[in-house]
Write a structure and sequence with these properties.
With 623 residues, this protein is an alpha+beta fold. The chain has helices spanning 230-255, 258-284, 308-313, 320-332, 372-385, 395-401, 403-424, 431-454, 463-485, 497-515, 527-540, 543-553, 556-561, 581-593, and strands at 25-35, 41-50, 55-61, 67-75, 78-79, 81-82, 96-102, 105-111, 120-129, 133-134, 138-146, 154-162, 173-177, 183-187, 191-199, 205-212, 223-224, 336-347, 352-363, 390-391, 427-429, 493-495. It has an eight-stranded mixed beta sheet with strand order 5-4-9-2-1-12-15-14, with no helix packed on it.
């Protein structure tokens, strides 16, 4: 509804020294306005409330071309005198009031003493000039008799707007609004009368009266406009009611329709599924390759062990398995020398000892053109070995002794591997398409949703606002589905044709290492091949299967030649990781290379809010 003119906004404080703080309760309001012969309005507002104690204020919005004067405050039996503070929250001399301008509002502040907090009726009177608009044919008085900035509900409202002279002219028209307020309006020859009940908080109520201009003696208290206006005003009011009625019928029609919910359900899922299917068809489907072998008995290529798991599992990074495999590959290639030794470990809380096979590492030869991640492994291992060397079983403790530095190196190892994977361009990547589609759906949904919520009328929703909110929610649900699909990497990433063929061959080699202990194939006759089996088995996370095969099939003389395999006393196989085995060594590296734990404390905070007002509204407070 239109929000020009005077609007009531009154908040009285509920905190006193003598009484506990309680919420202000509005009992009722009576607004009387008399249109003077010059077009000005003499307004009297009687507001009854309880749980008020010391003071109150009234903000009256003043638009361009309007002014207010002759303000007074009274209670039955006595008038308040002018004077005192206009500061909200101040406790001044009872039965006084004062006025001040706050922004575009005229603020009236008055003081009283009400220790019981019982019902009090205050009358605020003033002359309002410029509210009436005088056209060539009629005078339009659009008077907001109740404002939408009231924080409390109002049980009953009575408003009367009296004409300058009685009339029965057909140009004399009366409307009250909005249509969803519970009330009635009456037109008499002398006045327009409005009665409304159960007005919720923040609900504007207006009374619009149009009467012949000839009822005025002058227009010094009104604003003049050229041209005739009656037909346009009638059309505005009829259009406003028709729009409300149309919205009400449309909402009722569609909210109970199965077709509506089916369409919304489709809109909430189909666009997201369409985006996901497109991305999967374009980027996520693995290309077909002409390869059907079940096993590869040797590594298909010289691909570094730190890169193989990423290729076969379609990943873009590396972890502890790849780190351990790189270390053993460096031993295999001579960067480090390994000597078979045994180490005694306590068991049963120190009551006994056990002898385990172990490897003692020392520095070896420098490699030609080592990879960045191999340099990172050497950066961790070289300080541990020093000039004298170190046993592999002690590595976990030595790495953990400088966990902060080594954890940073481990992150550098993973970063170097990820960089190399990106350089090799193994994957087709549709992540950017998914992110772009998700952001677009979020914007497409968020903008209408926020617009619809911002303009939503709780008591009388507009059909257009409901549609915007519903469509916005559907689009945001689509965005959420797309965002969730980002976590499912195979939907948006697949290997290229060459990478797919190489991955298929390495997967066949992986299957061979996994099944090797059960196969009847002839074992390798080369110690180099056996050691490569172990290196890649560590990378794949199946080192125990390779060690089992070595335990069963590797000749004793070949074991003595190997720098990686060390099958010690009792036919136990350790593979350089002591009898705890490779998996426990990986676990130890994982914990030792993780960053040190940290703890902290945080503070709490709060939030505040504010209020506002505009044409047809106001704000207030009390003390």
């Amino acid at each position: 509804m239109r929000r020009i003119g005077t609007c009531a906004a009154f908040v009285v404080l509920a905190a006193t020294l003598a009484a506990p703080a309680r919420a202000t309760v509005l009992e009722g309001a009576i607004v009387n306005a008399q249109v003077q012969r010059d077009g000005s309005l003499q307004v009297s507002e009687q507001i009854t409330m309880s749980d008020v104690f010391h003071g109150g204020y009234r903000d009256i919005p003043i638009a361009k071309g309007q002014s207010i004067d002759r303000v007074s405050v009274s209670e039955p039996g006595h008038h308040y005198s002018y004077g005192g503070s206009t500061e909200l929250g101040s406790i001044g001399r009872p039965d006084t009031f004062a006025t001040t301008h706050v922004g575009g509002d005229l603020r009236t502040v008055w003081h009283f003493d009400n220790p019981s907090g019982g019902p009090r009726t205050f009358t605020i009177s003033y002359r309002f000039r410029g509210l009436a608009l005088a056209y060539d044919d009629v005078v339009d008085v659009n008077f907001n008799v109740w404002g939408d900035m009231w924080k409390e509900s109002l049980p009953s409202l009575s408003a009367t707007l009296r004409l300058p002279k009685p009339t029965t002219s057909p140009s004399y028209r009366v409307w009250a609004g909005p249509a969803w307020v519970h009330g009635v309006v009456q037109r008499t020859p002398t006045a327009a009368i409005l009665r409304a009940t159960a007005i919720p908080s923040h609900q504007l109520v207006d009374l619009r009266v149009v009467f012949p201009r000839s009822l005025l003696a002058s227009t010094t208290g009104a604003q003049t406009r050229s041209g005739t206006r009656l037909a346009q005003i009638v059309a505005e009011e009829e259009s406003s009611f028709a729009a409300y009625n149309h919205d009400r019928k449309q909402i009722k029609r569609y909210e109970h329709s199965l077709y509506t919910w089916l369409v919304l359900l489709l809109l909430a899922f189909v666009p997201a599924l369409a985006v996901i299917l497109f991305v999967y068809a374009r980027f996520g489907r693995e290309p077909k390759v002409d390869y059907d072998r079940s096993y590869e008995q040797e590594p298909p290529s010289d691909l570094a062990p730190a890169l193989v798991p990423a290729l076969t599992r379609e990943r873009s990074g590396a972890g502890v398995n790849e780190f351990t495999a790189t270390l053993f590959d460096l031993i295999h290639r001579g960067r480090y020398k390994a000597e078979h030794v045994t180490t005694e470990h306590s068991k049963w809380a120190g009551l006994g000892k056990t002898t385990l096979s172990d490897l003692e590492l020392t520095k070896g030869k420098d490699l030609e053109s080592p990879t960045p991640w191999e340099n990172v492994v050497a950066e961790i291992v070289d300080p541990i070995l020093g000039d004298k060397g170190e046993r592999l079983s002690n590595f976990r403790e030595r790495i953990a002794a400088d966990r902060t530095t080594n954890a940073a190196c481990f992150q550098a190892f993973k970063s170097a591997v990820s960089t190399e994977i990106r350089k090799r361009d193994w994957y087709r990547n549709g992540l950017g398409v998914l992110i772009g589609a998700g952001v677009a759906l979020l914007l497409v949904g968020g903008l209408p949703l926020f617009y619809g919520i911002a303009h939503y009328r709780t008591n009388a929703p507009r059909f257009s606002d409901d549609v915007l909110i519903a469509l916005g929610i559907c689009a945001i649900l689509d965005a959420i589905i797309v965002a969730v699909s980002i976590a499912i990497v195979p939907l948006w990433r697949a290997r290229t044709q060459p990478a797919q063929l190489e991955a298929a061959r390495w997967s066949a080699f992986h299957r061979y290492l996994n099944d090797f202990p059960r196969l009847e194939d002839a074992p390798p006759v080369s110690i180099v091949l056996w050691e490569r089996y172990l290196v890649y088995g560590i990378a794949f996370g199946i080192a125990e299967q390779v060690l089992q095969a070595a335990h069963l099939q590797m000749p004793a003389e070949m074991q003595q030649q190997s720098s990686l395999y060390w099958i010690g006393t009792g036919n136990q196989f350790g593979g350089g990781a002591t009898a705890l085995a490779i998996s426990d060594l990986n676990s130890g590296f994982g914990s030792a290379l993780s960053p040190p734990s940290s703890s902290g404390s945080g503070g709490g905070g709060g939030f505040g809010g504010g209020g506002g007002g505009g044409g047809g509204g106001g704000g207030g407070g009390g003390w």
